[in-house]
Automatic annotation (TrEMBL), chain A:
The electron transfer flavoprotein serves as a specific electron acceptor for other dehydrogenases. It transfers the electrons to the main respiratory chain via ETF-ubiquinone oxidoreductase (ETF dehydrogenase). The keyword S-adenosyl-L-methionine does not apply. Gene3D superfamilies: HUPs, TPP-binding domain. CDD domains: ETF_alpha. This is Electron transfer flavoprotein subunit alpha. The keyword Zinc-finger does not apply. Binds 1 FAD per dimer. It comes from the Bacteria. It comes from Arsenicitalea aurantiaca. Residues 3-186 form the Electron transfer flavoprotein alpha/beta-subunit N-terminal domain. Belongs to the ETF alpha-subunit/FixB family. SUPFAM superfamilies: Adenine nucleotide alpha hydrolases-like, DHS-like NAD/FAD-binding domain.
Automatic annotation (TrEMBL), chain B:
Heterodimer of an alpha and a beta subunit. CDD domains: ETF_beta. Keywords: Electron transport, Transport. Residues 23-211 form the Electron transfer flavoprotein alpha/beta-subunit N-terminal domain. The keyword Zinc does not apply. Belongs to the ETF beta-subunit/FixA family. InterPro entries: ETF_a/b_N (IPR014730), ETF_b (IPR012255), ETF_beta_N (IPR033948), Rossmann-like_a/b/a_fold (IPR014729). GO terms for molecular function: electron transfer activity. The electron transfer flavoprotein serves as a specific electron acceptor for other dehydrogenases. It transfers the electrons to the main respiratory chain via ETF-ubiquinone oxidoreductase (ETF dehydrogenase). This is Electron transfer flavoprotein subunit beta. Its cofactor is AMP. The keyword GTP-binding does not apply. One of its GO terms (biological process) is carboxylic acid catabolic process.
Amino acid sequence: MAILVVADHDRGMLAPSTARVVSAAAALGAPVDVLVAGEGAEIVARAAASLNGIARVRLADAAALRAQPAETLTPLLLRLAGDYTHIVLSAGAVGRDVAPRLAAKLGLMPVTDIIAILGPDRFERPIYAGNAIQTVHAPQPFQVLTVRASAFRPAGSAATSASVEPLEPEGLPALVRQLSEARTEGDRPDLATARIVVAGGISVGSAEGFKMIEALARALGAAVGATRAAVDAGYAPNDWQVGQTGKIVAPDLYIGIGISGALQHLAGIQGARRIIAINTDPEAPLMKLADYALVGDLFEIVPLLTARIEATQG
Amino acid sequence: MKILVAVKRVVDHTVRIRVRADETGVDTANVRFSMNPFCKHAVEAAVALAEAGHSSEIVVVSIGPRQATDVILTGLAMGAHRGLLVEAPETLETLAIARLLAAIVAEEAPDLVLLGKQAVDDDSNHVGQMLAGLLDWPQACFASAIARTEEGLEVTRERDFGQDTVALALPAVVTADLRLNTPRNTALPMVMKARQKPLETRPAESYGLDLAPRLTIEKVTAPPERAAGQRVADADALAAIIVRERAELELN
């Protein structure tokens, strides 16, 4: 049997999460196919086909799949399910939307937000905002899984690309009509899979203050994150929120600026390899958790750091 | 329209939980329980729709132990009209919960089911999507705005790239994200009044469904502790550390 990974993509680009989901799926011990479902997604399919460890890419190209709605993707996946033992998605907005719907249709329990694969039916997932880790045994005939992409290393590039096989996704239902999108424009890397994240808290004080955070991120080639309080205050857009209810990040380096470290936020950065914190309050939870903590005024420190780092790259 | 809101009783989100030493789960003895925060957003959305003249009946349902009556009373105090407690063990899986809710939907025939996007205990984020799947209804998950239209609803959803707005016909399932609204506080007179509202209790078995667990939780452990960190003297020293850390990244 085989495993089907559902690719993440947006605006004609394969998302960085997919390479990580492919490497997670490879640990299940069977050949991995990738499904690219969308409209005009041939370029995405070719990008997916160049990932290492893939048997083939299946391309479902249809107008109804443009915004990847759960009501349309689910029947498509039900048609394909017979060829597989596992369907694996990333725990992003699409995967969270689709996996439980699909599992319910199959009369199964989905296992979601997986951070470690111990075997084909044994997984680790966090509960209580990451304050506890469950080991789940799922003795089911078929598995619907979502994995936290940030918990897995990305698959590399293959020497020769896998084949792309088109499907004929006709007659799929469309129950929901997308009217508009509001995108956070920016040139920063994808937050959920970035290797370096620079994040700001309420002490950054304003949207203007976040420009300073962005400048440091730009100097480091980092993604920008924010706490729930900073987002609530309107300093940063919703999709920058890191935490239990926002994005989960696991960068090699996380720099938290003016962040006290509420439980909810710490839940989102538990996978970070190194944590640096800057805060006036040495007793802040994030300062105590950090590998390196600097006590001081962020408005003095951050521009200085940015200048120093820019200077090192000439 | 008639709205069904499903709510869950969970360990209060401000409680710092402890994993049991025998790794069988989380210690919930003597801790405070309350309505899951996302469920509060769902109740608030239902009450706001009613106040805007779009709904005349809100039924609040919880599936759980007898103590879950408390979160139903919270929902009634916020403005729901009628309560239903389905008595069941706390360990029911999300598939079983979704199956029970689908049976309740068949009896109650609501036009809209509102739920929180996830419960902050098991962080599953399943039930709304599973229920919509079982019913073959449209779903709008992670909602940050809901508007009633002639066609049905327009819902703004949190996506990875920002937000989008979708149109869907009723009946439908909508799950609440935290920016949907600000849940109202319930003053004592509202709580007293809630006790006068109808509240029915039914055992889960009475629905005649397969609620058997599919999964086994083999163990629950605390996350690994981080090594102690160090204080950095000044910004120059920190800049040097960042430059060094980044150089290491480039080698890996």
